[in-house]
Amino acid sequence: MESKIQAELMAAMKEKNAEKIAAIREIKTAIMKFKTAPGFSGTCTEADILTLIQKLAKQHKESADMYKAAGREDLVNEELAQLEHIQFFLPKMLSEEETAAVLDKAIADLGATSLKDMGKIMNFMKETYPNQYDAKFVGTYVKSKF
Is the pLDDT of residue 124 over 80? Predict the structure, then answer.
């Protein structure tokens, strides 16, 4: 994953795409901070990198929402452009309808009968669809089923 990020950075530099360069450098900075943080285990997995990228994407989305509420369209567009470049590195997210269908099937397959089985369902989602679903939606949906 890090090599893909580096290759995209080089391509953005050749294109002289300042927005894309800034977004990719932000990702690289987040990875470097992760690697130099106290307690780092010595390995940075693809899942770790995807988690970092998801956090960055969430931050940009929240910033865009705040700027929109404040009436700062110029900053909203800047944040959304950064978000678009960051999301390039994320796997395709499941829509709410797709997630609901997967959850319905998982609940049936796992034999989940109460909220006590939430852990089983969450583990299934983590293993089967890593970094491809909204955990908040999953929690809300599962709670509504029991």
Answer: yes
Can you give the pTM of this predicted structure?
0.71
Exposure string of 20-49, with b = 16+ CB inside 10 Å and e = fewer, is bbebbebbeebbeeeeeeeeeeeebeeebb
CA distance 57 to 125: 20
- Tens of pLDDT, residue by residue over 89-100, are 988 889 999 999
Give the span between the Cα atoms of 26 and 129, in whole angstroms: 25
Q: Residue 90: which residues within 8 A CB-CB, separation 6 or more?
A: 50, 53, 54, 57, 131
Burial class (CB in 10 A: 0-12, 13-18, 19+), 74: exposed
